[in-house]
Amino acid sequence: MGLADNTWDKFLAEEQKKIYFLKLKDFIIREYQNKNIYPPLDKIFTAFSLTPPEKIKAVIVGQDPYHQPNQAHGLAFSVGKDVKIPPSLRNIFKELNSDLGTPMPKNGNLSLWAEQGVFLINSVLTVEEGKPESHCRKGWETFTDAAISYINNLPQPVVYILWGKNAQAKERLINNKNHLVLKAPHPSPLSATRGFFGSNPFSTANNFLINNGAVPIDWDLNKE
Length: 224
Hints:
The chain has helices at 9-15, 19-34, 46-50, 87-100, 111-116, 140-152, 165-168, 201-211, and strands spanning 37-38, 58-62, 118-122, 127-128, 159-163, 180-184. The mean pLDDT is 94. The strands form two sheets. A four-stranded parallel sheet has the order 3-2-5-6. The chain is α/β, with parallel strands linked by helices. Strand 5, helix 7 (165-168) and strand 6 (180-184) form a beta-alpha-beta unit. Helices cover 34% and strands 11% of the residues.
């Protein structure tokens, strides 16, 4: 379980000493030894590697990683460049297009967002192949709660974009008056038509950042 090497170091060092994390680590090591687990072991903490705390402008919370081969790579909702765009992510792109007029991205890799300060974190960071939620209630939720609480204490303005009930469960950890919480239904095809479409999270986030003296996020993924 390679940990991120940046200014998350202190946070990660403190968490990995705790009993829950030691138990989680033992469980994860056994799982990777005996089963097909996603994302690859060296990609578990990609969100932490690409988005150090001082750069965070927005937080998007997912549930658990994609559970089919070659999809998950450590960023919530994101897939590799050569992977078919999953339905929920396609709906995110549709809302992005509707909200900002941004062209539909050619692939589903969200690394450009992460590098600009969008912390793309799942509530649970690993999953067994073909078994969604298989690593829930093993300790990851405690870890990601701690990460959200850490971000809550950051001084810069941060927008939390919480889609669906699982993400919105993290709202209880956010009480910093400098931050903004946006909530909408999950972008899944099962719920996107119940208020996700038309929620305008991308323009709302950027307006908040601009109004608080921060540089807005360029959500256009076609500028590589």
